[in-house]
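Reviewers asked in the last cycle whether our approach scales beyond single polypeptides. To address this, we selected a multi-component target totalling 380 residues and predicted its structure end to end. The input consisted of the following lines:
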Amino acid sequence: MERKVLVEVSARHVHLSKEHLAILFGEGYELTPKKELSQPGQYAAEERVTVVGPKRQLERVSILGPVRKSTQVEISLTDARSIGITAPVRESGDTQGSAPCKLVGPKGEVELTEGVIAAKRHIHVTPEDAEKFGLKDKEVVSVKIDTNDRDLILGDVVIRVRGDFATAMHIDTDEGNAAAMSGEVYGVIL
Amino acid sequence: MERKVLVEVSARHVHLSKEHLAILFGEGYELTPKKELSQPGQYAAEERVTVVGPKRQLERVSILGPVRKSTQVEISLTDARSIGITAPVRESGDTQGSAPCKLVGPKGEVELTEGVIAAKRHIHVTPEDAEKFGLKDKEVVSVKIDTNDRDLILGDVVIRVRGDFATAMHIDTDEGNAAAMSGEVYGVIL
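The resulting structure, written as structure tokens, was:
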């Protein structure tokens, strides 16, 4: 059986802690959901924030809700170089010793000493699909993406199995562009 | 024998025709070589140019010399999206029907109706290395790049054999970042 999986490109975005949301947007502020994401309960918010590095800044960066325990900024390595920081490739949540930046909102600023990462590519898998595809949580796989001009096999893809996931692979804009992806694209787990 | 090849990341750059150089920098102007490139006779010039799209512009873009028959702008698909154009993935020189942009220099501007591409990944090969590696001009191969966090196998890599080449693979910044490349990196032709 071919193990086909939807490949989604994540643009740069920020997850905020409750504390940082209050500093950036004001005490008691709540995010306004704008668009549901493929992962159940997750949404892109109406609100935007500026990510400032030593060389340059990224304006109007998406905030994904709901709030999380820790603030995390996910940018591409192209973005990181452009604003003048060195972001490590990390799994979500693994931000210890990652890159610093400043966040600027309409009501205040936050100096992050760490929290900026380039997301390690991964596949969200439901327990049902994990069973069907013979995949285990934390397993590392390769995924083949066929396009007209830039076929790619991505290694170091982490499998994450959880009951509240929808099955979808997440890569960043550099990776999507390296495959010249456009429209709805499916990869094959090798 | 393992067919190892140096992988070089090409940042965005512009090749100018003599005519466009004259418009942008003034009649009779000549480029000032700043840094030799790996391909014999090619150099990065001191001069820079602004690449303008409908949404945004890229400032201080490198000009590579010497002048060519036609002006060609090579940017990443990240760049293309950022400035608001759709650049096709093309081999160098194959610019017919490619994307438009405006170039702005210190002395004038040029409206390009076509000429903007995202470079198709390729390997410059000397005739000696082609013989040694069993490669033919125009052959399409795959290349494996192993890094700590983002192993990649790039398909659709075009082999170009010529006497005045040095053997080196060229990819763009999206592709280099999709492999999290840093420092001197070698790929293996599969």
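The longest helix of chain B spans residues 18-25. We regard this as preliminary and will revisit it once experimental data from Aim 1 are available.
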